[in-house]
Amino acid sequence: MGTLVGGGCCAPLVEGPDADATDAVRGRLGPLDPYLIAEPDGHITLNMMVEGITCGGCISTIERSLLKEEAVSKARVNLSTGRLKVTYDPERVAPEHLIATLDLLGYRAVPYDPAALQEGRDQEDKQLLRAMAVAGFAAANVMLLSVAVWAGTYQDMGPATRTLLHWISALVAVPAVFYAGRPFFDSALTAIRAGRTNMDVPISLAVLLATGMSVFQTLRAAEHAYFDSAVTLLFFLLIGRFLDRRARSKARSAAEQMTGLSATAVTVLLPDGSLQAMAPSSVEAGMTVFVPAGSRIPVDGTVLQGQSDVDAQLITGESLPEAVRPGISVFAGAMNVSAPLKIRVDAAGEGTLLAEIARLMEAAEQRRARYVGIADAVARWYAPVVHTMALAAFIFWFFGMGLIWQDSLMISIAVLIITCPCALGLAVPVVQVIACSRLMRQGILLKSGSALERLADIDTLVFDKTGTLTKGQPVLVPNQDADPDDIRRAAGIAAASLHPLSRALVAAAGPGVAPLDDVREVPGAGLEWQGRDGLHRLGSRAFLKLAEDAVPSGGGDSTSGPEIWYARPGQAPIRFAFMDALRDDAAAVVAEFKRLGMDIHLLSGDRDDVVAQTASALGIDAWEARITPDGKLRYLEDLRAAGRKPAMVGDGLNDAPALAAALVSLSPASGADISRTAADVVFQGSHLAPVLEAYHTARDAERLVKQNFALAFLYNAVTVPLAFAGFVTPLLAAVAMSSSSIVVIGNALRLGWRRGGNSPGGKSSGRGWTDSAGSARLKATPVSMGSDPSGSRSA
């Protein structure tokens, strides 16, 4: 005997799958290992695609039924892709049992294949178009016959002629109904066989009742038949379904868009020099792939041969193509712009960074917000309430008001059609998907679907300093007293080292600096170079054996912070001081948040004078210096205890405790850091404008969700009483039902239409944030870098 599995929308429990059902799954799909992902806690995630999903109620049915299994900890179905992810304990349940459960519910689990997904959508669109054409043809012809009947009623048409016209109408309408109604009938029949209901059950019931009543009236040679209503009703329902699908395609998820960037085939360079096309899943690390110009890079790897420009905007956030050469890492999904490349494979298929980002995005889109619980609760009661209301309408009008049964039934049909919960079911998910897509286009990755909801509620913003408000890269403080030749010679020595201060000195010297030969590096101390005039040394004060009160040549620079000294034979040493510059748009972003009423705080492990200088430059009054990571954690906890709703913007790799303590956390990160950072939101590029964009998107999304709920409830509050009172025909009910879903989706799409207005200066922050108006107006403000007592570079 199988276990009990929950049906949809208050449907009775149905018996779960037995051994034969699980064996059938094994026979259909074979080994499931390719679709299983091991989780760190020992659980397994089943990753597949589900066919047969028609509405939000289907998603709720699948998730609730799977979660009834005690071994299942998570069950999520993606609105856009139909992708299913079930996390379960492999010691307590087999994946075949879970798939068999879906089969029992009337859904079919298949391997996730984006190409097959798109092909299936195309086929469904073609089927809908054919059904619409048939229903439209039938509706037009039946309507002409009905006009003749109506006209004949007032011209003493004989019963035989009227009955003949009704039979002709039946010959046109009945085949059209059974053909054009298949998208609804098949879905409803599958649901009923599985012991559940969906939105297509009352729709099918309404169409069949109207058609059946018309056939009955024709057999009785009655005066009235309703073939015109039945076929035209079906025509409008199909139009609404088709427009609804088109609207949903506009809201296609960011995860699906990214999956579309994945290669379907990889050109592998074999040892004998020949080329062979292989599936991404068959490519292994260490192989060499060939990527012609104009093609997307199919793997993560390292360039072995060739020089080209690569558009890696999606990964790095940079809007301009990046020059690559041998030894440079490249990522799957990037476009090879100008010349062929040979690349050594580091990761392919599901192991690429592109696949990882897509998984994170999909998880964010599937995460449930608090508003979804409202929609799910309403959808759960939908079927019994609708059927009860339709029955009550018939009883009221037929028995209570004495209306003829035909007219009472038409009112009942109108109630069945007009009370569709699709608008309510779509109110939240479609907004969430569009918000994720919009942010992804702007170089912002949501790692938590509830992050938008939490971000919209914040009233306090806490910034880390180094690497967040500042660029996190040392910059040489201009020293007007230093001889340019001395700077270039020191840079020639520094070119032999990879130390950040050495690289900053080389960058400040300008292009054309030639590395000097025979430079010896003393690890942790400095560099030595034997010139014609004697020994040159570049490094710390201790390495040069200078006294603490040593005076540099020309007095030097008094800026506190990191420094290196340059000692030349017979001359006073030169001190090179370094500073950390603010991000170009930091001041503009902070000012905009303050204008919005946000309380701004700055936390750093740096010295008091350095943090005070940064706070002053940005107009931040609340700041703390020399604060350890534990201190940051306590600071955030104190804010939460005081009733504040803080967001923290900091380094997601080093400040994990503080980021976790905040209501929501944001972090700048390179592409390689995305999967490792502890933040809820990760943004690309060298600007802070994404923080502002994410906040505005969160507020916009929350407003649109509330509007969608208001629209859905208003629709039902107005239309259902009107239908019950007999003021709405089945045709008007079909138009209203379809329009409600389209209006909700159209309202959500406004989230993706808005352009600009969020970044400082009123312009769109743009992909990669390299063209924000803030950076165009503001010059980098130098802030000296100091030591961090906690030892954390990001403090």
Query: Which range does the strand content fall in?
Result: 15-25%
Q: How large is the radius of gyration?
A: 34 Å
pLDDT < 50 stretches = 1-14, 756-795
Q: pLDDT average, as an integer?
A: 78
Number of strands: 30
Shape: elongated
The major pleated sheet works out as: 7 strands, mixed
Give the end-to-end Cα distance, rounded to a whole number of Å: 60 Å
Structural class, judged by helices and strands? alpha+beta
Helix content: 40-55%
| CATH classification class of the domain at 444-471 and 582-694 and 778-784 | Alpha Beta
**What count of helical segments does DSSP give?**
27
Give the name of the CATH architecture of the domain at 444-471 and 582-694 and 778-784.
3-Layer(aba) Sandwich
Strand order of the largest sheet: 17-29-28-27-18-25-26
The CATH homologous superfamily of the domain at 444-471 and 582-694 and 778-784 is called HAD superfamily/HAD-like
> CATH topology of the domain at 444-471 and 582-694 and 778-784, anyone?
Rossmann fold
Membrane topology: Multi-pass membrane protein
Transmembrane segments: 131-152, 164-181, 201-219, 225-243, 381-405, 411-435, 709-728
Protein name: Heavy metal translocating P-type ATPase
Biased composition (Gly residues): 756-765
Could you give a short description of this structure?
This protein has 795 residues and is α+β, with helices and mostly antiparallel strands.
